[in-house]
Amino acid sequence: MKKMKKLFALLLAAVLLMSCFAHAEESTRKTDFPDNTFVEMDPSYITGVTQRGKTVLFRYDAKTEDGREYNKGAVVYVPYGYDPEDTETRYNVLYLMHGHGGGYTTLLGNPGGFSTMMFVLDAMIEKGRIEPMFIVCPTYMIPELDEFWCAANFSYELNNYLIPAFESSYNTYATDVTPEGIHASRTHRAFGGFSMGSLCTWNVFQNSLDQIAYYMPCCGGISFGDDAGSMAVMLAQKVAAAGYTKDDFFIYAGCGGEGDVGYKGLTAQIEAMKEIPDTFVYCENFRDGNLYYTQCSGGHSPKSVELIMYMALPTFFD
Fold first, then answer.
1. Which CATH number fits domain 31-315: 3.40.50.1820, 3.30.300.20, 2.60.120.10, 3.40.50.720?
2. pLDDT along the chain (318 residues), means of 10
3. Handedness of CA 108, 113, 116, 119 (dihedral sign)
4. pTM of the model
């Protein structure tokens, strides 16, 4: 009897200890999200900014799954005041992909230059809309390989090469770039993309939930919409297969209105996803769900990315 009582006491202590850890983990989750509701950015918002970030070229080595080696480049937005020696200050990261026919200079411009997207980011940081953060603009293209295949399979390169390479070189929330370290910092990492880059974003969503919690697909779905229902089911199945639930990710999607070539497919897909509320919970605030969809005036162009990003980034990251 004494042995049974001792065993019961040990089991009870273990349960209480696990409960404490669970509550400690819950307490670190972000709870005060701003509203998702889209508001068009005032064009004058980017004026009067004095603290300018910069763009630099970041290069890294990668391989395809079958072992083909290649070297890639990415343009990186580095926020004003970043000090590589200050390892105590950590930064969130958005990996942001270009569209069809583009490259790593499409969205942020050439390294060392200037772009409207840079001005938007500078203004958002200086005016306190977001914390200083990195934007990494790679390319999905691999020489001599089909563009669609590259966009639909970029997650392998992202997970195994780009994230570890970049986040071992800059002060992000990944205290180390082991799979465990990257997973532990997933709520400080986002992925987004425009047009074909939005297709890439949906691929990353399916294959990178261990690494990334926030997603910003712009101006494109997985298809043109005729199979939206089956695509939504497939996405839900991927979430379940990866061991995640509706509480573990957030999607802020958008397009450039009905004239946007990506409107039909993305709208149909989002509507189909709403029909699977066990996985995708549509909401006006990420406190209440994990899915939001908006339309803006940018059409099918990178301008829509800027407008959507202006609203999405304040709702991202723990």
1. 3.40.50.1820
2. 43 38 41 91 96 98 95 98 97 98 97 96 98 98 94 97 98 97 98 98 98 98 89 98 98 97 96 98 97 97 97 97
3. positive
4. 0.90
